[in-house]
Amino acid sequence: MDSSAVKTYLLELQQSIVARLAAFDGGDFRTDSWERPAGGGGVTRVIEDGGFFERGGVNFSHVTGSGMPASATAHRPELAGRGFEAMGVSLVLHPRNPYCPTVHMNVRFFVATAEGRQPVWWFGGGMDLTPYYGFEEDVRHFHAACKAAVLPFGGEEEYRRLKDWCDRYFFLKHRNEARGVGGLFFDDLGADGEGLTGFDRAFGLTRSVGDAFLGAYLPIAERRRQTPYGERERDFQAYRRGRYVEFNLVYDRGTLFGLQSGGRTESILMSMPPVVKWRYDWKPEAGSDEARLYDVFLQPRDWA
């Protein structure tokens, strides 16, 4: 296990992604370095009111603590009470144009420590796409990029496992609907967890997912960035963004871990969209483009 190699990779990943996104947007990402009183810190890179992104953040964090929060031990109760080291890159991008999807990606590494015992480590992460107006070619492109990232590390079976896991994870049980069209999700990936074993293989898959992000998302954003839109589309975008907020605050493991571990609130909640709406018991008109999102794109299926 080499946590220094993971940290070096994550910092380089953040830098390369921000550089490409800034060039695509034409605006600047604010750099906000911070320290955590309980141990560690990070660098948050944020853009707001950019040329393309209404809001976006690419966050690196490396934190330590004396006790694992409940969200990190829910599936590993035997690790409760151990110290921890956690590092990762997490990003969420909210374009202004409703025809351009929101996207999320994160890759992370945990180590649970206890005096006199071997450290327990694992990787997690993934990426997923949240369109407001669905285009099949876009969704197929995104899933094809996800699949290509996984195939060298377990083939079709491993890809299917992580794709299905994503469909289950990014699901709002209280709404009985998917947040978006999925992608990849994995956790507990390591020496004694699920899936790939061995540090080099688990780290290799994690790097492959992180490196695949720009190629998975930017061609979609480029294809849709000039699509005309009006108030109807912006209104529906704001309504669907409400589902994004609900998921992040109720279910998202990263958000819960950050808040439970005393993390930096501004960096944790950088994922929130800037304009959101809720309305009571609303459903889209049958046969509309908005209804098509629910009927076609929010139903799990094989895209790649």
Automatic annotation (TrEMBL):
EC supergroup of this enzyme: oxidoreductase
Catalyzed reaction equations: coproporphyrinogen III + O2 + 2 H(+) = protoporphyrinogen IX + 2 CO2 + 2 H2O
Important for dimerization, annotated site positions: H174
MF annotations from Gene Ontology: coproporphyrinogen oxidase activity
A Pfam family that the UniProt record links to this protein: Coprogen_oxidas
Pathway listed: Porphyrin-containing compound metabolism; protoporphyrin-IX biosynthesis; protoporphyrinogen-IX from coproporphyrinogen-III (O2 route): step 1/1
Keyword entries, A-Z: Cytoplasm, Heme biosynthesis, Metal-binding, Oxidoreductase, Porphyrin biosynthesis
Positions of a divalent metal cation binding: H94, H104, H143, H174
Binding site for substrate: S90, N106, V107, R108, G262, G263, R264
Superkingdom of the source species: Bacteria
Cofactor: a divalent metal cation
Keyword Nucleotide-binding: no
InterPro entries from the UniProt entry: Coprogen_oxidase_aer, Coprogen_oxidase_aer_sf, Coprogen_oxidase_CS
Coiled coil feature spans: none
E.C. number(s) listed in UniProt: 1.3.3.3
Location of region: Important for dimerization: 244-279
Subcellular location per the Swiss-Prot or TrEMBL entry: Cytoplasm
Residue positions of the active site: H104 (proton donor)
Quaternary structure annotation from Swiss-Prot or TrEMBL: Homodimer.
Family: Belongs to the aerobic coproporphyrinogen-III oxidase family.
Function: Involved in the heme biosynthesis. Catalyzes the aerobic oxidative decarboxylation of propionate groups of rings A and B of coproporphyrinogen-III to yield the vinyl groups in protoporphyrinogen-IX.
Name recorded for this polypeptide: Oxygen-dependent coproporphyrinogen-III oxidase
Gene that this sequence comes from: hemF
